[in-house]
């Protein structure tokens, strides 16, 4: 019987589903790094959220560890390179908090447009400053989405907004089906009245928005980031806001969490800030707990891997072209299927049949 450690505040549904499937579960909640490192040698699986840091040292201590799962979309708190070297699968649950994150993004956008947080603070200070907090409308404005997500683009439609997006992995047909125009980054920066970010933190996205990019934007633009801290250069953002190079910003994520008490954005009034709340709804926490539990059950009981973020890296390097082909074929099959796919049979012939083809399947 495989043993799984839940080392973060993951919904109780996760433990319930794992236990029902015959998996031995140890729910510890948030753990100190040293306690997690001491405990991990006893487990084949580890489930975390964002608080636990699954470092190289912890992964190397996990001599039995086969899989690490993040109940949520981001995996930047897991050392994927170390996991891959040890043959440990890393997976996330990207669908469970999509609605929650999109709703929070939209809430920040509207709050920023109407200065809701600032006006509330003013009222609580017994002030009446109607003219100071005059807002702007979103109707007919252009929303630029970096990392196209279907939900947010759909929220914009009832407000009669034009939506454009930059996303190098989304096809024009897919964007068109959502009523979105795909554009290059520079054009998005130049034409958008609002820009939202929905990308992971990688070497390519880290600091992707800085001083040079702010100069390409309208002075009336407003930014919303609920994806990952570090995507926007926060020092450059504070300087752009203070100099009125841009009109406003709303952040839910930060380069360091929690931010330092003297963070420059704290002193800027045209910046709305929340403490990483995008996925923090009752419903989202249930969904991600259920999703990651079901993925673990699929892995331990059926040998099926879903939503792995490093599986290709675990395969024989000779398989890399075939892995890419398998992804393309899977995507094509999903589009051609008349209904929900229940099973897939993979047949291998020729040179490839001599390899371990499990990762491709």
Number of strands: 12
Question: Main β-sheet, in a few words?
Answer: 7 strands, parallel
CATH overall fold name of the largest domain: Rossmann fold
Order of helices and strands: EHEHEHEHEHHEHEHEHEHEHEEHHH
Q: What's the overall average pLDDT, rounded?
A: 90
| Overall tally of domains | 3
What does this structure look like?
It is built from 14 helices and twelve strands. It has helices at 12-20, 33-39, 56-61, 80-85, 98-113, 116-124, 150-156, 172-177, 185-191, 211-214, 234-242, 282-302, 311-314, 320-336, and strands at 3-6, 24-27, 45-48, 67-70, 89-92, 142-146, 162-166, 181-182, 194-197, 222-225, 248-251, 271-273. The radius of gyration is 23 Å and the shape is globular. Helix 1 runs parallel beside helix 12 (282-302). The mean pLDDT is 90. A seven-stranded parallel beta sheet has the order 8-7-6-9-10-11-12, with helices on both faces. It is 35% helix and 13% strand. Strand 10, helix 11 and strand 11 (248-251) form a beta-alpha-beta unit. The longest helix is centred in the C-terminal third of the chain and has 21 residues, at 282-302. It is α/β, with parallel strands linked by helices and 361 residues long.
What are the defining features of this structure?
globular; 361 residues; five-stranded parallel sheet; alpha/beta; Rossmann fold
Furnish the topology, listing elements before pairings.
Layout: E1 3-6, H1 12-20, E2 24-27, H2 33-39, E3 45-48, H3 56-61, E4 67-70, H4 80-85, E5 89-92, H5 98-113, H6 116-124, E6 142-146, H7 150-156, E7 162-166, H8 172-177, E8 181-182, H9 185-191, E9 194-197, H10 211-214, E10 222-225, H11 234-242, E11 248-251, E12 271-273, H12 282-302, H13 311-314, H14 320-336
Parallel strand pairs: 1-2, 1-3, 3-4, 4-5, 6-7, 6-9, 7-8, 9-10, 10-11, 11-12
């Amino acid at each position: 019987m495989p043993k799984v450690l839940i080392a973060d505040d993951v919904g109780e549904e996760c433990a319930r589903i794992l236990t029902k499937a015959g998996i031995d579960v140890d729910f510890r909640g948030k753990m100190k790094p040293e306690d997690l490192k001491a405990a991990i040698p006893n487990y084949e699986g580890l489930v975390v959220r964002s608080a636990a840091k699954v470092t190289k040292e912890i992964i190397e201590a996990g001599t039995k560890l086969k899989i690490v799962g993040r109940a949520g979309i981001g995996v930047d708190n897991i050392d994927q390179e170390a996991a891959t070297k040890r043959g440990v699968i890393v997976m996330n649950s990207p669908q469970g908090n999509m609605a929650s994150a999109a709703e929070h993004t939209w809430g920040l956008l509207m709050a920023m447009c109407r200065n809701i947080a600032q006006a509330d603070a003013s009222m609580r200070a017994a002030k009446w400053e109607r003219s100071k907090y005059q807002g702007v409308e979103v109707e007919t404005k252009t929303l630029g989405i970096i990392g196209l997500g279907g939900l947010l683009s759909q929220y914009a439609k009832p407000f009669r907004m034009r939506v454009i997006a930059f996303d190098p992995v989304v096809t024009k047909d897919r964007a068109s089906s959502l009523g979105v125009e795909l554009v290059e980054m520079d054009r998005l920066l130049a034409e958008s009245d609002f820009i939202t970010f929905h990308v992971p933190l990688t070497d390519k996205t880290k600091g992707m928005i800085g001083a040079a990019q702010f100069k390409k934007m309208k002075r009336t633009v407003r930014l919303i980031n609920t994806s990952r801290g570090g995507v926007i250069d926060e020092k450059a953002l504070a300087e752009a806001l203070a100099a009125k190079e841009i009109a406003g910003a709303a952040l839910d994520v930060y380069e360091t969490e929690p931010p330092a008490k003297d963070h420059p954005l704290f002193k800027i009034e045209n910046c709305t800030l929340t403490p990483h709340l995008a996925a923090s709804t009752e419903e989202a926490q249930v969904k991600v707990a259920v999703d990651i539990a079901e993925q673990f059950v699929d892995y331990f009981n059926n040998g099926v891997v879903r939503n792995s973020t490093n599986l290709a890296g675990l395969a024989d390097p000779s398989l890399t072209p075939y892995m890419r082909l398998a992804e393309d074929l899977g995507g094509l099959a999903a589009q051609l299927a008349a209904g929900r796919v229940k099973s897939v049979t993979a047949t291998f012939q020729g040179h490839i049949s001599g390899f371990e083809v499990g990762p491709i399947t």
